UniProtKB/TrEMBL annotation:
Gene3D superfamilies: 3.40.1190.20
Carbohydrate kinase PfkB domain mapped to chain residues: 54-170, 281-354
Signal peptide positions (record): none
GO molecular function, one term: kinase activity
Coiled coil: none
InterPro entries associated with the record: Carboh/pur_kinase_PfkB_CS, Ketohexokinase-related, PfkB_dom, Ribokinase-like
Protein name according to UniProt: Carbohydrate kinase PfkB domain-containing protein
KW Aminoacyl-tRNA synthetase (keyword) present: no
Length: 426
């Protein structure tokens, strides 16, 4: 596929990206916030550096049982497939994020006794996830049993967690130790130990205290502008979870959270909740099979999900979306690119079991979408360098990642008319 960039001189001064092979087009106002990189650092300089990300949440041991239908009470049902694996929102996001080049991902979680948890943590280390920021507890690592039904695609989750969550003082101690370790490794640049810290919306009051401590420390020491704090509000029934609304530069919402607040439309929810979040915050909300949306400075962008013929495993699709957002935004990509990439990757996740190979799949999507001319120019370049090139950022804005619509105060100024996938078969 070859992309053509042309200027149309009209009163709206739009930038048009034409896709020769499909005839569809994307047009965006030059002043749109979605076309501007979110980072003050240029993407080219970002791509040359390692990005350190800390994800704070809870590690689980998951047992996933696949059944033909949901069992009635007091009956016996045979599972067609049973899988045990690492789980929890923070682990799922870290597993996806660690697959991408120059992403150093750490998790901070409370786990069971060392003698019982060392295999779990070793498995995470083998995936490229750093676990030195975890805490050992006397109680066992939390566990989940997930009943996944073939007929409806529903998931029923039964969890058990008697482990004490991380306190603010524990968070501060581990964060300070990471800063000291960075200095002892002769990394004397002005960057903080982590440029992105993501918080799972649990342990609400301690999480709020952790974010407040991080805000105060980064502001006092002069590196707040180099730090992004994101928070996930997924489970609406957690007491007082709304106190986290004002604490994230990036806020992730779930469809369940919006529906429990009485909303049936994603746009209504995001616009109403924008005023309850930090001024200037970027809001993302996933909406299941209908895709996801992003709201920033009054402009709403929606991306449809990529239709999947075979839904195999929906566990962690939202966590995959978050990983896509963190990856794209730390690389300086635009919000338009970020939303399309993340929605595409989350859609592709449900057609596979687990998370392995998602980054490689997205490499192929990126590679395929730009056509022979760019491929020829980069034919001797590795996937890692290809993904980081500025040319790919320019081309990626025009990808067919489902229907894309953008609204500023309800007025449509960006549309994408095709929902055909670019990656046919790999």
């Amino acid at each position: 596929m070859v992309f053509s960039f042309s200027k149309r001189k009209n009163k709206n001064s739009r930038l048009v990206i034409d896709e020769y092979s499909s005839g569809s087009s994307v047009s965006a106002s030059r002043s749109s916030s979605f076309d501007q990189p979110m980072s003050p650092v240029l993407p080219d300089s970002l791509n040359s550096k390692l990005v350190n990300v800390l994800i704070v949440g809870q590690v689980y041991q998951d047992t996933i049982m696949t059944v033909d239908y949901y069992p009635q009470e007091d009956t016996k049902v045979r599972s067609s497939h049973t899988q045990q694996r690492r789980g929890g929102n923070c682990v799922n996001t870290a597993e996806v994020l660690s697959q991408f080049p120059k992403m150093s991902t750490s998790i901070m979680s409370a786990v069971g006794p060392k003698e019982q948890s060392h295999i779990l943590l070793s498995q995470l280390e083998q995936k490229g996830i750093k676990t030195h920021t975890c805490f050992y507890r006397k109680s066992p690592t939390p566990s989940c049993y997930i009943i996944q039904c073939k007929d409806t695609g529903s998931r029923t989750i039964i969890s058990c967690n008697t482990t004490q969550d991380i306190t603010k003082d524990e968070f501060a101690r581990k964060f300070e130790m990471s800063s000291i370790t960075k200095t002892m490794s002769f990394e004397f640049d002005a960057r903080p130990a982590y440029s992105w810290v993501h918080f799972e919306g649990r342990n609400v009051y301690e999480t709020a205290a952790q974010i407040d401590w991080l805000e105060a420390k980064s502001t006092r020491e002069g590196w707040r502008s180099q730090l992004t704090i994101s928070v996930e509000l997924e489970k609406p029934d957690r007491p007082h979870i709304d106190i986290l609304l004002t604490r994230g530069d990036i806020v992730f919402f779930s469809k369940l959270y919006a529906e429990k607040r009485g909303y049936e439309e994603i746009e209504d929810f995001l616009r109403d909740f924008q005023g309850r979040c930090k001024p200037g915050a970027v809001l993302f909300c996933t909406w299941g099979a209908e895709g996801a949306a992003c709201l920033f400075k009054g402009e709403l962008l929606h991306s449809s999900a990529l239709a999947q013929t075979h839904v195999i495993d929906t566990v962690g699709a939202g966590d995959t979306f978050i990983a896509g957002v963190i990856y794209c935004m730390t690389r300086g990509h635009t919000l338009l690119t970020t939303l399309k990439f993340s929605c595409e990757m989350a859609s592709r996740k449900v057609s596979r079991s687990g998370f392995d190979g998602l980054a490689n799949t997205m490499f192929k999507v990126w590679d395929t979408s730009l056509g022979a001319e760019l491929n020829k120019a980069h034919q001797s370049t590795s996937n890692q360098n290809l993904l980081q090139s500025k040319s790919y950022e320019n081309g990626f804005i025009g990808l067919e990642f489902g229907t894309i619509t953008s609204r500023r105060s309800g007025t449509s100024n960006l549309t994408h008319s095709s929902s055909a996938p670019l990656l046919r078969k790999f």
